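Help needed: design a sequence for this.
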């Protein structure tokens, strides 16, 4: 989201409730980081990975089995999630075990899934 988009959002919100005080806007770097996180979550396989990791840390082959997706595709999506700070990988012997960095991101995904299910 650009700062212009944020300004549009603020103006849009104020138009609905003139009595509401203007929302405090995060700085540009924070808005950029939030956009990066949301883009990283914007793929069905990555959403499924986050849901799997919410239940328990998993290695790549467990994600491949659970999601019925190829290993190269899982690895590619994990790289995106890792670079966005959504997941981290910890080496355990010959495998890397992936886990969510924190639960905040799982809540975003859960809320998005619930919202999508309500629309169907």
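Sure. Designed sequence:
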């Amino acid at each position: 989201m650009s700062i212009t988009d944020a300004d549009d959002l603020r103006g849009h919100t104020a138009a609905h409730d003139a009595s509401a005080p203007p929302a405090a806007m995060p700085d540009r770097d924070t808005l950029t980081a939030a956009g990066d996180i949301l883009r990283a979550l914007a793929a069905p396989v990555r959403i499924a990975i986050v849901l799997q990791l919410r239940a328990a840390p998993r290695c790549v082959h467990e994600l491949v089995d659970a999601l019925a997706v190829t290993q190269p595709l899982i690895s590619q999506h994990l790289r995106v999630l890792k670079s966005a700070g959504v997941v981290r990988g910890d080496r355990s012997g010959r495998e890397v075990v992936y886990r969510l960095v924190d639960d905040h991101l799982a809540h975003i995904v859960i809320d998005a899934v619930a919202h999508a299910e309500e629309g169907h």
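Helices lie at 3-16, 28-40, 44-55, 60-67, 71-83, 103-118.
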